[in-house]
């Protein structure tokens, strides 16, 4: 008996092979795209966490330097003009031409500075006082070099000025005389500028640096001897105090 052997041959045409290759490529591409998406999500999450950390830091700094006992803002210093020395300049309007009869080489203007806060200390430095009339600077002087102030403390400081510059003497005398003739009061603007550091009793190592700008209108000419001789005097004592953020300590 003869034995017969049958061979089976499997034939894969080119179309089937191409489809299988494309499916394999698509699967690989899907895996790569998924990896890229996961990487982008991780980067976005890191950026979000970094942003939250920055916002948290800003919030903590705000509470450290601006908020007192949870809700109260740190109060600015209270600054007033206390007095002017009696030896300051004197003007006479007794004659046709007004005359500065006293223009001393040295005279003082005294300030009172109070820290109204309980838990915050102030440190003042680089203070300079100036006096102007109609935006024209007449006097300027350095104040006490630097001083420290505990919570609720009050400090008195003096600013010593020199004589009024000679080019302004007649102009000021004439302006004062004109104000008197028109029934107006001659007023001078006083500025006190410098820097201030603020520290907390709880965390004294944390220091906030600020610029200090003080504006006062309380210096005026007061008349004696039948309203014909004028001297400097203090009217309204309270000053406007502004503090601005300054990163340099």
From TrEMBL:
<dbReference type="Pfam" id="PF03168">
    <property type="entry name" value="LEA_2"/>
</dbReference>
<dbReference type="GO" id="GO:0098542">
    <property type="term" value="P:defense response to other organism"/>
</dbReference>
<dbReference type="InterPro" id="IPR044839">
    <property type="entry name" value="NDR1-like"/>
</dbReference>
<feature type="domain" description="Late embryogenesis abundant protein LEA-2 subgroup">
    <location>
        <begin position="111"/>
        <end position="199"/>
    </location>
</feature>
<dbReference type="GO" id="GO:0016020">
    <property type="term" value="C:membrane"/>
</dbReference>
<keyword id="KW-0472">Membrane</keyword>
<protein>
    <recommendedName>
        <fullName>Late embryogenesis abundant protein LEA-2 subgroup domain-containing protein</fullName>
    </recommendedName>
</protein>
<keyword id="KW-0812">Transmembrane</keyword>
<keyword id="KW-1133">Transmembrane helix</keyword>
<dbReference type="InterPro" id="IPR004864">
    <property type="entry name" value="LEA_2"/>
</dbReference>
<feature type="transmembrane region" description="Helical">
    <location>
        <begin position="43"/>
        <end position="66"/>
    </location>
</feature>
């Amino acid at each position: 008996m003869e034995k017969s052997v049958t061979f089976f041959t499997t034939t894969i045409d080119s179309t089937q092979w191409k489809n299988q290759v494309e499916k394999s490529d698509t699967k690989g591409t899907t895996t790569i795209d998924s990896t890229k998406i996961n990487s982008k999500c991780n980067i976005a999450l890191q950026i979000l966490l970094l942003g939250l950390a920055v916002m948290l830091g800003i919030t903590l700094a705000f509470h450290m330097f601006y908020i007192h006992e949870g809700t109260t803002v740190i109060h600015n210093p209270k600054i007033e003009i206390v007095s002017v020395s009696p030896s300051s300049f004197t003007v006479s309007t007794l004659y046709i031409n007004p005359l500065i009869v006293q223009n001393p080489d040295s005279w003082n203007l005294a300030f009172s500075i109070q820290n109204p806060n309980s838990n915050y200390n102030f440190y003042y430095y680089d203070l300079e006082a100036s006096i102007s009339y109609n935006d024209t600077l007449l006097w300027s002087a350095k104040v006490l070099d630097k001083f420290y102030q505990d919570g609720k403390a009050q400090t008195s400081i003096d600013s010593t000025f020199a004589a009024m510059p000679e080019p302004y003497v007649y102009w000021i005398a004439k302006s004062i005389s004109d104000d008197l003739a028109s029934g107006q009061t001659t007023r001078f603007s006083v500025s006190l500028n410098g820097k201030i550091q603020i520290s907390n009793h709880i965390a004294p190592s944390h220091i906030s640096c600020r610029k200090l700008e003080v504006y006062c209108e309380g210096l005026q000419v007061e008349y004696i001897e039948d309203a014909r001789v004028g001297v400097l005097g203090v009217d309204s004592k309270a000053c406007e105090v502004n503090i601005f953020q300054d990163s340099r300590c």
